[in-house]
């Protein structure tokens, strides 16, 4: 496993120039095929034990990225290295074993649990499939997992429809934990829940992270949940990463105008995110089938200059542990001095 000597952080997952292109065919008589670049040359690193938040408006490619990391969909190009190993080059058997280490928690706790199965079988299924436990041992494991996610062992005999959204999400978390994964991709795990329940689930995820030494990729379209749970945050826009920074830096001194816009859209009642005056996001997200030339954010950017309309900025490092994809980042000099 790679060890970064400067900060002694172990790299768990590395995504290198990862892309997913979908072919979209339109029209009945004159059929026309276009390419939608849902994820476009994304590179990022996830360190052991951290939570990397991925945030951006609906349709920016967050779930597609998460699904590729989970091997639920095939990338069009690029690499995903888990513990230094390229999963796409593994034999089936090794891949099956490795895949246990990466699990997912889904957005919708109503549709992600099989309604015909009892909670016991929902949580037991991965343990049975991988031949990890059976009989009394299986029962003990399931009860332990229910307890870990804050549910009573009696719940094992009930069906999903007998539970609230928050309780179902707890079941989904228990199932994801059953194979003792190293990495959990949490895809909008609280978006479908009431605000009061959201913080309970976020707290549970934090407790479990410490208890089981988990690493999370936490995907959400809203900054508050991402800001609450993440150590670092990647901001996505139309398939690209616009900025990736430590949480505190990103919230206090955003470099990308899009990040500033996302911060400005957070209700001012959120004290942690309230800050200096920020330029709000204007206009709609462009059609991803026909993204703007140059910087893809330029059509909505309050600071746009001529160069931005023609030249696409590359993600480049500024200061310590911060990267931004913008020709004219906000507060660039300050950031390069203080990280
Ligand atoms: N199977 C598919 N076929 C065609 N286009 C797709 C497919 N899956 C996703 N897309 C498109 O890819 C883009 C990225 O979608 P994705 O679901 O990854 O975004 P997202 O940021 O997770 O959004 P949301 O929060 O709404 O789920 C969108 O324009 C979407 O319409």
TrEMBL record:
**NCBIfam families in the cross-refs:** oligo_HPY
Record-annotated ABC transporter domain positions: 13-263
Q: Which species does the entry assign this protein to?
A: Paenibacillus germinis
Instruction: Tell me its family.
Output: Belongs to the ABC transporter superfamily.
- The molecule here is called ATP-binding cassette domain-containing protein
Q: Name one GO molecular function term.
A: ATP binding
Query: Which InterPro entries would you find in this protein's record?
Result: AAA+_ATPase, ABC_transp_ATP-bind, ABC_transporter-like_ATP-bd, ABC_transporter-like_CS, Oligopep_ABC_C, P-loop_NTPase
Under Gene3D superfamilies, the record lists: P-loop containing nucleotide triphosphate hydrolases (3.40.50.300)
Keywords from the named record: ATP-binding, Nucleotide-binding, Transport
Note the SMART domains from the entry: AAA (SM00382)
Output the PANTHER family linked to this UniProt entry.
Answer: ABC TRANSPORTER, ATP-BINDING PROTEIN, TRANSPORT ATP-BINDING PROTEIN
């Amino acid at each position: 496993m790679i060890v970064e000597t400067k900060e002694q952080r172990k790299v768990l997952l590395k995504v290198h120039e990862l892309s997913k292109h979908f072919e979209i065919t339109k029209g009945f008589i004159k059929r026309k095929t276009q390419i939608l670049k849902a994820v476009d040359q994304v590179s990022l690193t996830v360190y052991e034990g951290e939570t990397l938040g991925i945030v951006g408006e609906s349709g920016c490619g967050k779930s597609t990225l998460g699904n590729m990391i989970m091997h639920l969909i095939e990338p069009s190009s690029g690499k995903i290295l888990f513990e230094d190993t390229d999963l796409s080059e593994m034999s089936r058997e090794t891949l099956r074993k490795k895949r246990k280490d990466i699990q997912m928690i889904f957005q919708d706790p109503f549709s992600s649990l099989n309604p015909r199965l009892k909670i016991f079988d929902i949580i037991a299924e991965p343990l049975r499939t991988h031949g990890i436990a059976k009989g009394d041992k299986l029962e003990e494991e399931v009860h332990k997992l229910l307890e870990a996610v804050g549910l009573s062992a009696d719940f094992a005999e009930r069906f999903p429809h007998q539970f609230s959204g928050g309780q179902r999400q707890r079941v989904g978390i228990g199932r994801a934990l059953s194979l003792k994964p190293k990495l959990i991709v949490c895809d909008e795990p609280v978006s479908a829940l009431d605000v009061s329940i959201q913080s309970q689930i976020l707290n549970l995820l934090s407790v479990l992270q410490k208890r089981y030494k988990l690493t999370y990729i936490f995907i959400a379209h809203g900054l508050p949940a991402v800001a609450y749970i993440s150590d670092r945050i990647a901001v996505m826009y139309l398939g690209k990463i616009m900025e990736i920074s430590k949480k505190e830096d990103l919230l206090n001194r955003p470099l990308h105008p899009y990040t500033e816009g996302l911060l400005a859209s957070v209700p001012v009642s959120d004290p942690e995110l309230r800050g200096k005056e920020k330029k709000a996001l204007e206009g709609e997200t462009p059609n991803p089938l026909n993204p703007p030339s140059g910087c893809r954010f330029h059509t909505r950017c309050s600071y746009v200059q001529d160069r931005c309309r023609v030249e696409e900025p590359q993600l480049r490092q500024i200061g310590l542990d911060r990267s931004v994809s913008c020709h004219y980042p906000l507060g660039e000099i300050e950031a390069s001095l203080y990280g």
